[in-house]
UniProtKB/TrEMBL annotation:
<dbReference type="GO" id="GO:0003677">
    <property type="term" value="F:DNA binding"/>
</dbReference>
<dbReference type="InterPro" id="IPR010982">
    <property type="entry name" value="Lambda_DNA-bd_dom_sf"/>
</dbReference>
<dbReference type="Pfam" id="PF13560">
    <property type="entry name" value="HTH_31"/>
</dbReference>
<protein>
    <recommendedName>
        <fullName>HTH cro/C1-type domain-containing protein</fullName>
    </recommendedName>
</protein>
<dbReference type="InterPro" id="IPR001387">
    <property type="entry name" value="Cro/C1-type_HTH"/>
</dbReference>
<feature type="domain" description="HTH cro/C1-type">
    <location>
        <begin position="13"/>
        <end position="64"/>
    </location>
</feature>
Length: 411
């Protein structure tokens, strides 16, 4: 995405606004002022919704939308909410059918099938953080069907069967994550159960550890913090070094949400002592220092230790800001952790930071970001008279259309 093109789009938006104030324009198009401000400075690409509203208001004939589309032309095509809803429903139905068929059948697949599946898992893992979830679902879903079909129709004595089951489990795990971040937690749990069956069937420690971590995440976002912490601790039994820091981080964030200062700090110490993986493994991105700072600062802020948290969360945001390939979900969550730390010092800055996080996922709806943003907006409710807080709360009254797949709450 060219910086020159983004600057030209920003300049054109400023030109159209003319002497009209940003607040007045926001009221006229029923959008929030902070998004308009960032669009005019070129710090982020304006959302499709914003440019469509501006085009309609200024009667440009779609000029801004075309400029924006030119800038994102190299990205994967978007999937409409209705198409994605049908796709998700079909995949979920297939999960139930294929589970019944596993361990039966006759046909034997070729090694080329296995290499294709392994390549897909690796490619999706490597691009997961910078690709909209809606674009990944069809790719992962297609290969998951292939993998599960092979496993379900399989050749019990074939020596490649365990490898196919691991690949099928990795793809089911990826679908679990994708369903979760489109707001479908029930579908996410369905695929996680299937991934867990493959993990148990193969005894693969990497898949087993990853599945455990995702169960902790589902419990955490459901508000069951005690179970989230318990599951994360249980994951250590696999002794899988790649996930040691991640599982400790999941325990820390859950205990922080419970207000358990001693337990949370002990878990953070374990996280910081754990090895940092040098490269990603199939289906799971590696723990990183920036992500560790996000967890540490966010946990301290949950415990009310805002001054201590602030430089840590600021460091995490800076680390992601300076990466051209920063994973957008983690980048946005770093901003949300920083917002939580700012609650003790500057409510306006805290609200604006949440809005920046939402801007980052405006065209890539991500449930983890919207859920945390909703939580922070609720915490800021006593300050609803502050303009930035009022704008944020107004923005969160309606979840993005592409997240409205299930009844997942955002506030």
């Amino acid at each position: 995405m060219g910086q020159d093109g983004r600057a030209e789009l920003a300049a054109r938006i400023r030109e159209l606004r003319g002497d009209k104030g940003q607040a007045a324009l926001a009221a006229a198009i029923l959008h929030d002022r902070t998004a308009i401000s960032r669009a005019e400075t070129g710090t982020v690409l304006p959302s499709r919704d914003l440019v469509e509203r501006l085009d309609a208001y200024y009667r440009t004939g779609g000029e801004l939308g075309r400029r924006r589309q030119t800038l994102i032309g190299g990205q994967l095509p978007e999937v409409s909410p209705s198409d994605r809803r049908d796709l998700l429903a079909g995949l979920a139905a297939s999960a139930g059918e294929l589970t019944v068929r596993i361990r039966t059948g006759r046909t034997t697949p070729g090694r080329s099938d296995l290499l294709l599946l392994q390549h897909t898992v690796r490619t999706v893992t490597d691009t997961y953080g910078v690709t909209p979830h809606s674009a990944l679902i069809p790719v992962v879903g297609r290969h998951w069907r292939l993998a599960e079909g092979i496993v379900a129709d399989a050749w019990k004595s074939d020596r490649l069967r365990p490898a196919f089951r691991v690949a099928a489990g990795q793809l089911a795990y990826l679908l679990c994550r994708l369903f979760f971040n489109t707001g479908d937690t029930a579908g996410s749990a369905t695929f996680l159960e299937l991934a867990e069956e493959h993990a148990v069937g193969t005894g693969d420690p990497a898949l087993s550890s990853a599945v455990t971590g995702m169960w902790s995440t589902l419990h955490f976002y459901a508000g069951d913090y005690r179970e989230a912490a318990t599951v994360a601790v249980d994951g250590r039994r696999w002794g899988y070094a790649y996930d040691t820091a991640v599982l400790a981080a999941y325990e820390a964030r859950a205990l922080g949400a419970l207000g358990d200062d001693t337990g949370a700090m002990r878990a953070l110490e374990l996280m910081e002592r754990s090895p940092i993986p040098s490269a990603s493994e199939p289906s799971c991105e590696p723990y990183s220092t920036a992500w560790g700072m996000l967890i540490a600062g966010g946990t301290l802020a949950r415990l009310g230790r805002h001054e201590e948290a602030l430089p840590i969360t600021a460091g995490s945001v800076t680390a992601y800001d300076t990466r051209s390939d920063a994973p957008y979900e983690m980048h946005a969550n770093a901003l949300l952790a920083h917002s939580r730390a700012l609650l003790g010092a500057d409510i306006t800055a805290a609200a604006d930071t949440v809005s920046r996080a939402l801007d980052m996922v405006a065209d890539r709806p991500t449930y983890s970001v919207w859920a945390r943003a909703g939580e922070l907006a609720s915490v800021m409710a006593p300050h609803r008279s502050v303009q930035a807080v009022a704008e944020l709360r107004g923005r969160l009254r309606e979840a993005p259309a592409m997240l409205a797949l299930t009844a997942g709450q955002t506030s």
